[in-house]
Design goal:
This protein is of the alpha/beta class and about 220 residues long. It is built from seven helices and five strands. It binds guanosine-5'-triphosphate and magnesium ion.
Amino acid sequence: MRLASRALCGAAGAAWRDSFPLGGRDVARWFPGHMAKGLRKMQSSLKLVDCIIEVHDARIPLSGRNPLFQETLGLKPHVLVLNKMDLADLKEQQVIPMVRGLVESSYRYHRGESLEYCAMVIGIPNVGKSSLINALRRQHLRRGKATRVGGEPGITRAVMSRIQVCERPLMFLLDTPGVLAPRIASVEMGLKLALCGTVLDHLVGEETLADYLLYTLNRHQLFG
Ligand SMILES: Nc1nc2c(ncn2[C@@H]2O[C@H](COP(=O)(O)OP(=O)(O)OP(=O)(O)O)[C@@H](O)[C@H]2O)c(=O)[nH]1
Ligand SMILES: [Mg+2]
């Protein structure tokens, strides 16, 4: 009710809040065991791959970066994918040629002789890593789902065995669990992450989250 009355009050011409009161709030830590374990396994799987595909939610290109990835997995060539751009046509996506070009122009360590390409798909939770793998497989191989997808964070819980996504060039992808930074840098960042479904709502508080969404929509004059 409080939210609805604020929206109505705005529609009648009252001033919008130009800042969101964050004082005294804190974001609970959310770095469950499967993330720490997943990250260790991702590090030890680096020797199996030529390239890293880092998937982002296009709505939070800055808040959605996890600095841990650069520190721990930064050695290999990197492709950044901005996912959830629903207006983008999948047929236009260039992930496979880009990975191929990047691998061919990079040093491949002990994998120099290998004729196949392998990349690890990483990112924070729920940004669409597994969906991307299934979509590439469907597009290039016309084959069905190979990894589980779901609407809440934490669906993929461990580094999976490699999944073929293309025949020419022969390419495999490793799906991995979404990994957040162990400490979310600010409450506002936590709110953005939660609104995009990458952290659980209760960590920032459902009411605060709803209020922040309303504040953001009002600021952008999105009254629909
Ligand atoms: N609107 C929209 N939703 C998407 C897109 N890609 C994935 N999703 C949805 O986002 C949710 C998460 O997708 P997943 O592929 O499971 O995400 P993930 O990154 O593998 O998640 P974790 O395994 O939990 O880390 C699902 O509900 C998907 O249907 C997209 O391009 N647009
Ligand atoms: Mg997944």
